[in-house]
Design brief:
Elements (H helix, E strand, L loop, with lengths): L7 H8 L4 H8 L2 H4 L13 E6 L5 H14 L5 E5 L2 H9 L5 H4 L7 E3 L2 E3 L5 E6 L13 E5 L7 H11 L7 E6 L5 H8 L3 E6 L10 H11 L3 H6 L19 E2 L8 E7 L12 E8 L2 E7 L7 H14 L4 E5 L5 H10 L5 E4 L5 H13 L3 E3 L4 H9 L12 H15 L10
Parallel strand pairs: 1-7, 1-8, 2-5, 2-6, 6-7, 9-15, 10-13, 12-15, 13-14
Antiparallel strand pairs: 3-4, 4-5, 10-11, 11-12
Helix pairs in contact: 1-2, 11-12, 13-15
């Protein structure tokens, strides 16, 4: 939140005929500006877990909550960030921090790692990276920011709970972008926790157009976007070959040296058949980029062949890589019916799905595979893929196609692209 002196909101209100004082009062009036989800939830909660995307208004909600507590003389308070320096920079001095949400005449004084209001209320500022600093002090309320990335989260949180014991109703607010940490999952499951979700888009009125264009538009729909923009808690299987931290967003990858369309055909095309996995990927240098996931169900033979051939032409692919364990020569024949000139490389699985996938997962672990936006369903299936060869009890058709595509690309040298070979 920018200074009131140069805020467009105040300028608009001045243009509407309000005096400078009226415009400033409106700017600092949280009831006029707050969205419903930025208000404390109703009910008898101990922890308000405010989970949101980047720029969704979490920090402003936290600072306004502290401002309201100070006005009600709830004291002493504590503000906890990853470090004391980060807490001061973001929670206190930041664009939406405690100092900025107070009118100049009401702002507390910052002295070292302590805020002091004119009515006597005090707030201690602590860093979660040093849990031992929580020993001794006691508080009536706490605001914890970005808990999901605290390095010693559980130790710091538990020590804070011992100190949160003053007043009639000690409470704490956690503002954070979610990550599937043990502490986050624990808090979300506790009956004393009230959870509120916010998305980046809900706060677009206060965000720069360049951010909305360059960041929000680019990552919307991706796993990273679901976590960082939508505020969604994305969990990984403990035994998974892939974790979400492995997924690297494709930058400007340059000229792709070789492109393939990989197909994992279903056994049949009736309503209960498996999906047909269709994945497009390209090689660049020593790595690869997954370009598209075109998988669908139910997939009759003519339908999946039509989609695979269409992808071949759309992406300028070199060949279609098709698994033929189930269909044999029929797979190649169905593709030939759509376009006899499309080269098809038939592959046959001689090992289990997990074993075939392991070297491909290693490529991800080494940072050699990137994803274009929009691969949410594929990424979800990759993270759900287990040692039993299934993904949440279903055939991992998208994963199968991905494995065939990357095996083909990374097993072949980065030779110049020659269509039809």
């Amino acid at each position: 939140m920018p200074d009131a002196s140069n805020n467009s909101e105040i300028s608009e209100r001045l243009a509407a005929g309000l005096s400078v004082k009226e415009a400033r009062d409106a700017y600092y009036s949280w009831p006029l500006l707050a969205r419903d989800e930025q208000w404390p939830p109703r009910g008898d909660w101990t922890t308000w877990l405010l989970v949101g995307g980047r720029g969704s208004g979490k920090t402003r909600a936290g600072a306004e909550w502290i401002r309201r507590l100070a006005w009600r003389r709830v004291s002493p308070l504590v503000l906890v960030g990853e470090t004391i320096v980060e807490a001061i920079d973001v929670m206190v001095k930041g664009p939406s921090g405690v100092l900025r949400v107070h009118p100049p005449e009401d702002r507390p004084l910052l002295r070292g790692n302590r805020l002091i209001w004119s009515n006597g209320v005090e707030a201690l500022i602590l860093g979660a990276s040093d849990p031992e600093r929580f020993r001794g002090p006691q508080f009536a309320a706490a605001w914890c920011d970005e808990l999901a990335k605290w390095p010693k989260a559980e130790a710091a949180w538990d020590m804070l709970q011992f100190g949160l014991r003053l007043g009639d109703r000690p409470r704490q607010l956690v503002t954070t972008t979610p990550r599937a940490t043990r502490l986050m999952k624990r808090l979300m499951g506790e009956p004393e926790t009230a959870t509120t979700h916010m998305t980046t888009r809900q706060n677009d009125e206060w965000l720069a157009n360049s951010f909305l264009r360059a960041v929000v538009a680019r990552y919307t729909g991706s796993v990273l976007g679901r976590q960082e923009l939508e505020g969604e808690l994305i969990e990984d299987r403990p035994d998974a070959l892939w974790t979400r931290s492995m997924f690297r967003a494709a930058a400007d990858e340059g000229a792709l040296e070789r492109i393939v369309v990989a197909v994992d055909p279903p056994v049949s095309g009736h309503q209960r058949s498996d999906a047909c996995g269709i994945v497009v990927a390209g090689r660049v240098g020593e790595g690869a980029v997954v370009l598209a996931d075109l998988s669908f169900a139910p997939a009759a033979p003519d339908a999946w062949a039509r989609r695979a051939v269409s992808a071949f032409h759309e992406y300028g692919a070199d060949c279609i890589v098709a698994e033929v364990n189930q269909g044999g020569d029929m797979v190649k024949a169905v593709i030939a019916q759509e376009d006899a000139d499309v080269p098809v490389r038939a592959v046959r699985a001689s090992r289990g799905k997990w074993v075939r996938a392991e070297p491909v997962a290693a490529l991800y672990a080494n940072g050699r595979v990137a994803h274009r936006p929009g691969l949410v369903a594929l990424e979800d299936e990759m993270c759900a893929f287990g040692a039993d060869g299934l993904a949440e009890g279903r055939s991992p058709d998208r994963v199968d196609a991905l494995v065939w595509a990357l095996t083909e690309l990374m097993a072949v040298g980065a030779a110049p692209r020659v269509r039809g070979t």
